[in-house]
Design a protein that fits this description.
The complex is a heterodimer of chains A (106) and B (666).
Chain A: H1 4-24, H2 28-57, H3 63-93
Chain B: H1 7-21, H2 33-55, E1 67-73, E2 76-81, H3 86-109, H4 117-136, H5 140-158, H6 165-196, H7 201-204, H8 207-213, H9 218-235, H10 244-247, H11 253-262, H12 266-274, H13 276-279, H14 283-306, H15 310-337, H16 344-374, H17 390-404, H18 410-425, H19 431-458, H20 473-488, H21 499-504, H22 518-527, H23 529-549, H24 562-572, H25 577-622, H26 630-656
Antiparallel strand pairs in B: 1-2
Helix pairs in contact in B: 1-2, 1-4, 2-3, 2-4, 3-4, 3-11, 3-16, 3-20, 4-5, 5-6, 6-9, 9-12, 9-14, 11-16, 12-15, 12-16, 14-15, 14-19, 14-24, 15-16, 15-18, 15-19, 16-17, 16-18, 16-20, 17-19, 17-20, 18-19, 19-23
Chain lengths: 106, 666
């Protein structure tokens, strides 16, 4: 049994790596991948707390794991939508550099 | 006949519709004068039948009157009904007789007006109709509606010659000044409605119920009656709202005779008389009524002393006589509250109202006849007309004698009754002794200015080149009829059961049984030394006018010098009251309006524009934050999350640890 704090440290690091990717990368696909990393950090948190709760109350409660599964499924759908958007952006502007896609402003 | 009384206002109204709507070629005589005469005579006949019924003791009063519900809101219902009692009968008599004679007289007087006569007759018929409606109304709101309508007709007819700037502004002035009184009347009605929940005469005049409704709020009842009297101040041209009536003389003389002498201006007196059952519950209001009446009577009489316009002399005389009636009503209320309730003041006021309606209409129509003949209002341009206009001069002399109060003409009887009532009220409030003295002084001045007018107009040598001639039959016959009425209407005091008993019945249970017989009344009038005091002053007044304005050899320029000159200038300027109103309007009120305008433009509009400016500029500045740069947005989101985390971990526990005086919204 691994203690909860190790899981939390791990997920925090994973989240920070994702956030760093989102902030530093210009390529929209890499940004999308970084967002997926951050999402998985959150999913790890969900599963970790679910396990911790079961141990604490000496029973089995799998609702945290169920939510994690739903989250993964939704992330898959979201990736499909995100990639579709990136594709159509590329068709229109011949680029997926997020620094150049700045027409939505004043 | 009483149940057909509703036809009395309807007949002139139909005439109004016919004259104003039918094609011009169908107006067969005098551009509508024919229909107008038919309408007026029809109403006259019906009125006389109704008056006959009332004389026989039939009245339409109380809950059983014919009425229909007009507006029903919750517990309050406003009705339209007919109320016919002795008071209404007196008003009907004056309105019907004078209106018929004036319409006939108009056939001659307005002959030269051409196509505009159609508008004149239409408006006159509308006025007659709504004036009948006013006196037949059975509740205050119905009365108020007709009250406003007579004001409208007054406005229209004063401004008949609207192309003359003075007439147009006089019409506006009459409308606006009487409106001040009308607003007070309306406020009084609203107070009555608030406390009693009804406007019906039949319910309000139940003294016990009204007093119960106002229990604990007696001051509000006093305020209500004083405000209702405010309506009378405006409509009956009482001080301080009297200045519109002399200006109203800009209208045709027939209009002055009908509306501004005999009928509409009596509406205020009628209103006060009608409100008597409420007024006697509030002695403070009654004293106010009496003081306003007395002051008006004296003030207007003084201005009439110096006026040079024949119609303005008559206008101020009208104001003064209306003051008499109001004064008598104020005094009568005290007599009615007294241990042995007497209707003396009330009956005197209504008696004077009736007599005044006849002789003042006569005087105005005579003045109209003179103006018609020589084409000016200025008495300084008249003179020597006695030979040329015998009928007019004799009838006007009768009118002047009647208003001055020479027995046995009508004015003597009613003026004596008025002064006697005021004198008797003096034993309940000393103020009425002062007012009585003012009334006697007014009687003296009335005799003087009336004969000054008569001598200046008809006596001496002609002062202008105009070739005057007697007026046509159409005008002189109504004059003769009115002169006859001015002679005999005073005897109503002694005919049948007597005017006092008759009119006293309209007060219902408020009056004690009258023990005085008619012969005792006559004896009382002729044995009272005060009668002879007034009569003596009247004769002196006439003699002074005769000496100054008829006999040669009196240097009238002494009036224009020194102290009398100051007075003369003040009187010619109407005690500067008119000037005061003008200055008030042009300087004070106009200045206030400029201030309000500036406030509106700069403060109110400035506030609105300032907010718009603020919104637009704020948007212009902060929209720069929307750069469209995705990475900058995400950086800010992350920064926000970090700050939120720091807040939750470090600052929130520190805040929660603060002492209890710290605001506890955490």
């Amino acid at each position: 049994m691994i203690d909860i704090q190790y899981w939390l440290i791990f997920s925090s690091l994973l989240f920070a790596v994702g956030a760093y990717g989102v902030l530093t990368r210009k390529n929209a696909i890499v940004v999308l991948m970084s967002i997926e990393v951050m999402l998985n950090a959150a999913n790890i948190n969900l599963v970790a707390f679910s396990s911790y709760y079961s141990v604490l109350h000496e029973g089995t409660d799998s609702s945290g794991q169920a939510i994690a599964i739903i989250s993964i499924a939704i992330a898959a759908a979201e990736v499909a939508v995100g990639l579709a958007i990136i594709l159509s952006v590329y068709r229109r502007y011949q680029t997926i550099d997020v620094d150049k896609l700045n027409i939505l402003r004043w | 006949m009483l149940e057909y009384a509703w036809l009395i206002p309807v007949i002139p109204f139909v005439a109004f519709l016919v004259i104003s709507m039918l094609p011009k070629r169908t107006l067969w005589w005098e551009d509508g004068g024919g229909y107008a005469t038919i309408g007026a005579v029809g109403a006259l006949v019906l009125s006389i039948l109704v008056i006959w019924d009332v004389l026989n003791g039939n009245t339409l009063v109380g809950d059983a009157i014919p009425k229909f519900e007009w507006i029903v809101v919750g517990d309050v219902s406003v009705t339209f009904g007919l109320w016919v009692d002795e008071l209404t009968a007196v008003m009907l008599l004056v309105i019907s007789v004078v209106s018929t004679l004036v319409v006939i007289y108009s056939g001659g007087y307005m002959h030269e007006e051409g196509g505009r006569r159609r508008r004149y007759y239409a408006e006159i018929m509308l006025f007659i109709s709504v004036m009948y409606g006013l006196v037949l109304a059975s509740n205050y709101l119905e009365m108020f509606i007709f009250w406003e309508l007579v004001g409208l007709c007054s406005y229209l007819l004063i401004g008949f010659w609207y192309e003359k700037p003075t007439a147009a502004s006089a019409a506006k002035r009459a409308f606006i000044v009487t409106r001040v009184g009308d607003i007070m009347f309306m406020a009084g009605i609203i107070i009555l409605l608030k406390y009693t929940g009804t406007l019906e005469f039949s319910e309000l005049f139940d003294s016990a119920a009204t007093q119960a409704a106002f229990a604990g709020n007696e001051n509000m009842l006093t305020l209500a009656t004083a405000l209702i009297f405010g309506g009378a101040i405006g409509k009956s041209a009482q001080f301080p709202l009297h200045e519109w009536l002399p200006d109203a003389m800009e209208g045709p003389t027939t209009v002055s005779a009908l509306i501004h002498a005999a009928t509409m201006v009596k509406a205020g007196v009628y209103l006060v008389a009608r409100t008597y059952p409420l007024l006697v519950l509030t002695p403070d209001s009654l004293l106010f009524v009496g003081i306003i009446g007395g002051v008006t009577a004296l003030l207007a009489a003084t201005v009439a002393l110096a006026a040079n316009d024949i119609k303005r002399v008559l206008a101020y005389s009208t104001i003064s006589q209306l003051g008499y009636m109001i004064l008598a009503l104020g005094a009568g209320g005290f007599l009615l509250i007294a241990a042995h309730p007497s209707d003396a003041g009330y009956s005197a006021a209504m008696f004077h109202l009736m007599n005044h309606g006849f002789f003042k209409a006569l005087l105005f129509l005579c003045a109209g006849s003179v103006i018609h003949a020589i084409g000016t209002n200025d008495m300084r341009a008249m003179g020597g007309l006695r030979k040329k206009m015998p009928i007019t001069s004799v009838t006007m002399l009768i009118g002047a004698l009647a208003i001055a109060g020479i027995p046995p003409l009508s004015g003597f009887w009613s003026k004596d009754e008025v002064l006697a009532a005021v004198y008797n009220a003096g034993s309940f409030d000393w103020m009425f002794f002062v007012l009585w003295a003012m009334g006697v002084a007014t009687a003296f001045m009335t005799a003087f200015y009336m004969f000054r007018m008569w001598f200046m107009t008809f006596g001496g040598e002609p002062r202008s080149e105009v070739h005057a001639h007697e007026s046509p039959k159409l005008m002189s016959v109504p004059l003769m009829i009115l002169a006859g009425l001015a002679v005999v209407s005073g005897f109503a005091l002694f005919i049948g059961e007597g005017f006092k008993t008759f009119i006293g019945r309209s007060l219902g249970g408020l009056v004690a049984a009258e023990e005085e017989s008619l012969s005792e009344l006559a004896v009382e009038i002729f044995t009272d030394p005060l009668t002879y005091l007034t009569l003596g002053l009247v004769v002196v007044g006439i003699f002074v006018a005769y000496r100054v304005y008829y006999l040669p050899g009196f240097d009238r320029s002494v009036f224009a010098k020194g102290v009398p000159g100051t007075f003369q200038r003040a009187l010619l300027n109407r005690w500067y009251i008119s000037k005061f109103y003008d200055d008030f309007a042009y300087k004070v009120w106009y200045g206030f309006s400029l201030l309000a305008d500036a406030f509106d433009r700069h403060v109110i509009d400035g506030l609105v524009n300032g907010f718009a400016f603020l919104g637009a500029n704020t948007g212009r500045v902060i929209r720069k934050a929307q750069t469209g740069d995705v990475r900058r947005y995400t950086s800010l989101v992350v920064l926000g999350i970090v700050l939120l985390a720091l807040f939750l971990v470090y600052i929130l526990p520190w805040l929660r640890a603060m002492p209890p005086w710290f605001p506890g919204w955490f």
